[in-house]
Amino acid sequence: MARAKIALIGAGNIGGTLAHLAAVKELGDVVMFDIADGLPQGKALDIAESGPSEGFDAAMSGTSDYADIAGADVCIVTAGVARKPGMSRDDLLGINLKVMKSVGEGIAAHAPNAFVICITNPLDAMVWALREFSGLPHEKVCGMAGVLDSARFRHFLAEEFNVSMRDVTAFVLGGHGDTMVPLTRYSTVAGIPLPDMVEMGWTTQEKLDAIVQRTRDGGAEIVGLLKTGSAFYAPATSAIEMAEAYLKDQKRVLPCAAYVDGAYGLNGFYVGVPTVIGAGGVEKVVEISMNKDEQAMFDNSVNAVKGLVEACKGIDGSL
Ligand code: APR
C-alpha cells in the first residue's frame, strides 16, 4: 500500500517538530508548506538527513506552492503567528484569521479529502474559521487542544502523586484558554477518581486546585520561560497522536476541538469535547453528564469561544 501523505501547513517550531515526529514514527511522506523562503525546504532536508541514523523510510520535502500538498491524507495547520510574552491568544485573532483564509482555500483546492487538524491559536475560533474557509466536511476538520491540555494535566498529576503518567488519565473540556475545564471527577490514577485520591490522603484539595490552575495556565507558563515563542514539543506530539488515530483507524477517545451539533445543548459550534477519532475523522462526540459547577464552567468557556467567533465575523464579513 502506498504511504500516507502528510502535509504540514506552517514549518515553524511546531511544524518542524511535527515533521520530525511523523518521520521517526513512519506515519507517511511529509510535505512542509510555508511562506518563508527556504524554511520548509531547509527543515525537510535536515530531517531527511537524520533518516539514515534513525532508520526511517519517509520522503521529506518543503514547498511554498499549495499544488505540492495535492492528495494529502492529513493536513496539520500551524501557519500563523505564535503568541509572544504579554500577548493573549485573542490578540492573535486578526492576524491569524487572514492566514486561515489562505490556508483554507489552499486545502480546499488541493487536498479536499484530507483530515485537517488545526493548531493555530486562538484555537477554537481558528478551527471554526478554517472549516468555514475550506468548506470541508465538519467531521474532517478539528482542532488540537484537549490532548495537549490533558497531557499537561497528566504530567502535573503524575509528578504530584509520584506515579507513572501512564497510569494517570485526565479529562479536559471546553475552549483552549484560560476558561478550559479540567474535570477532576473524570480524571483518575489507575481508575481512582481524583476526588477519591484527596479522600485517601494522597493529595489535598488545595494542591489539586493549584494543579488545575497550572493546567489552565500551561501555555502561558511556557511562553513566560521561553520569552521568544510558545510551546512546540508537546503541541506537536499531541497533534501527531490525533493524526495517527486517523491514519490507523484507531478509534481513540481523544478530547479535541470538534464540531458539536446537538450534544451539550450546542447547535453547530466548535469547542473542546471528548471524541472518537478513526478513519472517518471525528466519528463521534462523546457527551458526558456534568454537575452544576462543571456545567457552569463549561458554559463560561463556550461563551468565551462564542465571543471569539463573533469577533472573527466582525473582522471578515464573508464569515
Ligand atoms: N501560510 C503559511 N505559513 C505561514 C503563513 C501563511 N499565510 N503565515 C505564517 N506562516 C508560517 C510562518 O512563516 C512560520 O514559519 O507559520 C509558521 C509559524 O511558526 P512559528 O512562528 O514557529 O510558530 P509555532 O510555534 O510553530 O506555532 C504555530 O500554533 O500553538 C499555535 O499559538 C501558536 O498560532 C501558533 C501556531
Automatic annotation (TrEMBL):
Domain Lactate/malate dehydrogenase N-terminal: from-to ranges: 5-143
Reaction(s) catalysed by this chain's protein: (S)-malate + NAD(+) = oxaloacetate + NADH + H(+)
Pfam families, alphabetized: Ldh_1_C, Ldh_1_N
Residue numbers binding NAD(+): 10-15, 34, 96, 119-121
GO biological process terms, semicolon-separated: lactate metabolic process; tricarboxylic acid cycle
EC nos: 1.1.1.37
Domain Lactate/malate dehydrogenase C-terminal: 148-306
Membership in a protein family: Belongs to the LDH/MDH superfamily. MDH type 3 family.
Purpose: Catalyzes the reversible oxidation of malate to oxaloacetate.
Protein's recorded name: Malate dehydrogenase
Source species of the chain: Sulfitobacter donghicola DSW-25 = KCTC 12864 = JCM 14565
Taxonomic placement: Bacteria, Pseudomonadati, Pseudomonadota, Alphaproteobacteria, Rhodobacterales
